[in-house]
Amino acid sequence: MTLSRALRVAVAVALTAFFLWRAEPARVGAALAGATPAWIGLAVALVFADRALMAQRWIALLVALAPGSRPPIGEILRIFFISTFVGSFMPSVAGDVYRAYSLSRLNVSGSEAAASVFMDRVLGVLSIVIVGALAALALGRDAVGSATLIVLAAGTAASALAGAAVFSERVARTAQSVVARVPNARIRQLGTGLVDAVRRYAGHRDALLAVLLTSIAVQALRVLQAWCLGRALGIGAPLSAYFLLIPVILLVMLLPVTINGLGTGQMAFEALFARAGVAAPEAFALSVLFIALGLVGNLPGGLLYASPTRPSAERGTR
Predict the structure, then answer these.
(1) Quick one: residue 74, left, alpha or beta (phi over 0 = left, psi -120 to 50 = alpha)?
(2) Cα(132)–Cα(165) distance, rounded to whole angstroms?
(3) Whose C-alpha in 68, 90, 278, 284 is 20 to 30 A from the C-alpha of 271?
(4) What is the longest distance spanned by two Cα atoms in the chain?
(5) b/e string for 243-254 if b means 16 or more Cβ within 10 A?
């Protein structure tokens, strides 16, 4: 285990232990023990639906950028689902790296592979911001706390910067000039290719819009999953509160400071759901179920990872 990963694990454990202590373990255990199985089962069905949509949006990005070099759908799906499993135990960027690397071994250029993963991540973040912002507008200023606005604003700024890299020639030139100063020739070549590949998405606006709409549907499914888990725990917060709070929590969980949002997720659930009148034990229990649900959705990737079968292009390199 590297030092950085060990530090993230330590932070995740420390944060989780602290918020569990604050929420009182006995009360959290009682909330989890009383959860309604039927609502949890519905949430599980929804998580597999969102994984299918996530795979579809990445395939759409690949088709737009590299139609002639796209591997068979089965191999793309294998890479995608294994990447979700890998991301369960490492910062989310690890799954993205796995996707780009594995795709580059299947006769797709490294820059196009990295660009497809980059755009998938960017549109995913943008869709989270859109869902949260729409909920904030619908609920009104009084229902939205300052922390919620700050997180949504940060997500908006990050999405705008990434969008500028796609559609602004000036930003692309600036990025190229920065990459040109990198001393390592291999990294410099990869960076130049990535900027060029990302810029090519500017000519595929219809595909980007379709992927964005798919991403918004994914976020809506995630909100519904959390709502189902809340109903399982007997939490009475309205669905509108989930549409406001879950996008903010997802953005917090994306921060690469722990493993799979563990710790930061508990912190965000307790802090934000308190505004909706949810007690700390129930909020902590909800965070545990929400993270566990994500792990359940990633299990198919674990089964594929353990399978001895490998994509044909990878077998050919051995």
Answers:
(1) alpha
(2) 24
(3) 90
(4) 61
(5) bbbbbbbbbbbb
User: pLDDT, tens digit, for every residue of 28-46?
Assistant: 999 999 999 999 999 999 9
Give the separation between CA 302 and CA 189, rounded to whole angstroms.
33
Q: What angle do CA 156, 160, 166 make, to 5 degrees?
A: 150
Token output for 204: 């595929």
- Structure token pair of residue 146: 């300052």
Q: What is the pLDDT of residue 269?
A: 95
Mean pLDDT of the chain: 85
Cα distances from 8 to residues 12, 89, 185, 238, 294, in angstroms, run 6, 11, 31, 34, 19
For 135, counting Cβ atoms within 10 Å of its Cβ (0-12 exposed, 13-18 middle, 19+ buried), the class is: buried
* Triad 92, 279, 44: Cα angle to 5°: 45
Q: Specify the pLDDT at position 26.
A: 95
- C-alpha–C-alpha distance, residues 235 and 233, integer Å: 6
Cα gap 56→5, rounded to integer Å: 30
Among 146, 118, 144, smallest CA distance to 132 is for: 144
Q: Tens of pLDDT along 86-95? A: 877 766 677 7
**What whole-number distance in Å separates Cα of residue 313 and Cα of residue 108?**
11
For residue 209, which amino acid is it? L
